[in-house]
Q: What sequence folds into this?
């Protein structure tokens, strides 16, 4: 906990140099300075990525009037409880609070704010959407034909790198037509057991249950005589979907199309959680929720540090099981695991963690995009460790288009192929 | 007569203390602010860290009734807020017909009178005819997302609108406590309306105080060893870490086995009270437990 100390939030009367934006505040009261400090502090937090609205600021101001602002822990807690709404933002808040506090004590708030107000580095790339804008302006022009996909001779690119490569992914810009195609394809996605009955009901004249409340309300129109029974039916909706997607070196050729798929899925259905893993696990659910795919990809490439590096599937699954499984696998979630099963760690801990994952979700589907010919033997240790713990194993023979991906996921499960694979493993 | 809300953070801390709840300053400040600002309190944290207990202690300390809503998947308005008594409404319609007084507008206001409205926990908590309440909405993460939408009006304005009847306002605003174990993410709309606090595992000093309150029959030496052991256990790489509730249970278990100090044998036998997953037990049992016991004993001295 923070040590007790005298508040300096309201002790800046002697501050000689005030921020330009504060200078016209003549006859500064302690309260005025306090709210100014809260405002400035909120700017710092926003810059650090905390979503703060005006309502949060008002709540923070209100909270200040109800505590002893001479006690640092109380000020700290009061600001935190009103400005932070998620546990994962708490560390960021605490750091920002310490930084701002020190600055306020040394009258260095100005320097911090000046740094914040400083010009942002100019974007190196054209901002997202540029291509689509250009297209829209030159609507008559013919669409650029996508470059011919180089035919691959060898199937799996067995380049499991032995070092972690930290790099930002650079995605190709997408055309408006491509985005629309993706949206259309993904609406056709139909995972197994997709229509799950919930406990909610909706009005339905042919439904099996009688809705007494609506029936009585309708009967009043005819003076209390019940002429027709109102009925309801249970609502069905798809279960939560959790996608764990491998983005290591051997999968890097598909990163673009997979991410495109994930973005379309995340914006098409409710309750989709998306994780990427190579050597570490990143939750990109919030980033993908951005409607514009290019914006979303830019956000994703900023937070994911391990594009096209090695794979530690066991470790990534362990991290998922430990930190996330209890938070996202409730309500009968279906897990879609997209990986080639080529593991850098020699499948260390993979079997145990696959087993735990399998036991915590209602259905585990493994999509392997690298198996393209029928006679492939599952020799890799990783594949052998994973196969016994999946409900369904699906392959894509040529992951060149979203259509192939959606078709593979929506097809009825090939049980015979499953058995064959299991036997081989 | 319910007592007034505490005026300062210190008063709130004293109120929790009097109820047997050992709170740190941050929690006491948050609870105080929630009551002073009339905002719901949203408590998130690992299971067994005393989230539900806060509501109980507040209800006892403020001398208010505790209205508890346990959430589950499929919880709907009829079970959470209110329900019309359809059987009696139908009866009232028949009687009106029989007596020939079937005037349509009168009938409508007759059968949608307050007496036909059955209050469920949410409505009961803001019922102006009942004494003030502490409303506990427990394990909100267990309810499905559509249920959260029902809560928004209540949490923002302490009122419930029944379409056929009108809006029911609270006379005295209830103290609202929501808890979540994070088995799913609660929506931002709920978070925005609440004051947020993450209830962490207590540090060793506070856990000793809690144990002294909740299991007073345990010898101080044993209690110190228990706390030191559990604190070390929380530093291990386990699937499910033991909460405070588990420490209290474990202290009780060791008392029943007439233990006066920790010994590796007794720890191995009772590990199931602390750890609830076989993988975790297998990892700790034996050598690891013996090592932790030695460390805990050294630290407790």
A:
């Amino acid at each position: 906990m923070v040590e007790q100390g005298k508040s300096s939030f309201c002790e800046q009367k002697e501050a000689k140099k005030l921020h330009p934006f504060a200078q016209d505040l003549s006859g500064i009261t302690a309260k005025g300075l306090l709210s100014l400090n809260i405002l400035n502090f909120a700017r710092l937090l926003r810059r650090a990525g905390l979503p703060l609205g005006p309502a949060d600021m008002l709540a923070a101001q209100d909270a200040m009037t109800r505590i002893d602002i001479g006690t640092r822990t109380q000020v700290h807690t009061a600001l935190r409880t009103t400005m932070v709404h998620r546990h994962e933002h708490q560390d960021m808040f605490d750091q920002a609070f310490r930084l701002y506090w020190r600055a306020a004590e040394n009258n260095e708030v100005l320097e911090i704010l000046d740094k914040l107000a400083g010009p942002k580095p100019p974007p190196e790339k054209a901002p997202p959407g540029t291509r689509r804008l250009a297209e829209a302006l030159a609507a008559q022009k013919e669409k650029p034909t996508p470059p011919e996909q180089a035919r691959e001779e060898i199937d799996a690119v067995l380049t499991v790198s032995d070092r972690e490569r930290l790099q930002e992914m650079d995605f190709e810009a997408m055309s408006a037509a491509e985005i629309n195609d993706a949206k259309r394809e993904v609406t056709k996605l139909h995972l197994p057991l997709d229509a799950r009955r919930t406990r909610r009901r909706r009005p339905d004249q042919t439904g099996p249950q009688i809705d007494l409340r609506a029936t009585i309300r309708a009967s009043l129109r005819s003076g209390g005589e019940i002429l027709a029974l109102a009925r309801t039916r249970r609502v069905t909706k798809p279960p939560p979907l959790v996608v764990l997607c491998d983005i290591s070196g051997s999968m890097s050729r598909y990163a673009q199309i997979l991410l495109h798929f994930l973005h379309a899925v995340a914006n098409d259905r409710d309750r989709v959680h998306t994780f990427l893993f190579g050597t570490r696990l990143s939750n990109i659910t919030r980033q993908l929720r951005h409607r514009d795919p290019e914006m979303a990809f830019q956000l994703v490439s900023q937070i994911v540090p391990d594009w096209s590096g090695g794979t530690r599937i066991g470790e990534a699954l362990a991290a998922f099981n430990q930190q996330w499984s209890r938070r996202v696998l409730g309500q009968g979630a279906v897990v879609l695991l997209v990986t080639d099963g080529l593991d850098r760690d020699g499948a260390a801990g993979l079997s145990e963690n696959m087993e735990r994952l399998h036991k915590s979700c209602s259905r585990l589907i493994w999509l392997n995009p690298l198996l393209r010919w029928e006679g492939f033997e599952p020799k890799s240790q990783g594949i052998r460790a994973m196969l016994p713990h999946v409900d369904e194993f699906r392959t894509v023979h040529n992951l060149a288009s979203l259509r192939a991906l959606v078709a593979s996921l929506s097809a009825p499960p090939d049980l015979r192929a499953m058995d064959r694979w299991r036997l081989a493993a | 007569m319910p007592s007034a809300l505490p005026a300062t953070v210190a008063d709130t801390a004293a109120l929790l203390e009097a109820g047997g709840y050992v709170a740190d300053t941050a929690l006491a400040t948050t609870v105080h602010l929630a009551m002073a600002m009339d905002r719901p309190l949203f408590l998130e944290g690992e299971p067994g860290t005393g989230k539900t207990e806060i509501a109980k202690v507040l209800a006892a300390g403020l001398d208010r009734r505790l209205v508890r809503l346990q959430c589950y998947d499929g919880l709907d308005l009829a079970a959470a807020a209110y329900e019309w008594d359809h059987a009696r409404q139908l009866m009232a319609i028949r009687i009106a017909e029989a007596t020939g007084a079937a005037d349509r507008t009168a009938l409508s206001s007759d059968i949608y009178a307050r007496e036909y409205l059955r209050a469920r926990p949410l409505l009961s908590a803001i019922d102006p005819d009942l004494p003030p309440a502490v409303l506990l909405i427990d394990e909100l993460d267990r309810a499905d997302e559509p249920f959260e939408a029902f809560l928004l009006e209540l949490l923002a304005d302490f009122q419930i609108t029944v379409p056929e009847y009108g809006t029911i306002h609270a006379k005295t605003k209830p103290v609202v406590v929501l808890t979540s174990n994070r088995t799913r993410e609660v929506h931002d709309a709920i978070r925005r309306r609440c004051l947020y606090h993450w209830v962490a595992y207590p540090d060793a000093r506070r856990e000793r105080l809690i144990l002294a309150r909740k299991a007073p029959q345990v010898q101080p030496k044993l209690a110190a060893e228990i706390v030191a052991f559990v604190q070390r256990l929380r530093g291990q790489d386990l699937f499910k870490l033991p909460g405070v509730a588990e420490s209290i249970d474990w202290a009780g278990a060791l008392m029943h086995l007439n233990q006066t100090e920790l010994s590796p044998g007794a720890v191995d036998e009772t590990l199931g009270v602390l750890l609830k997953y076989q993988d975790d037990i297998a990892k700790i049992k034996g050598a690891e437990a013996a090592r932790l016991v030695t460390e805990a004993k050294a630290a407790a001295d």
Notes: The longest helix of chain B spans residues 220-233.
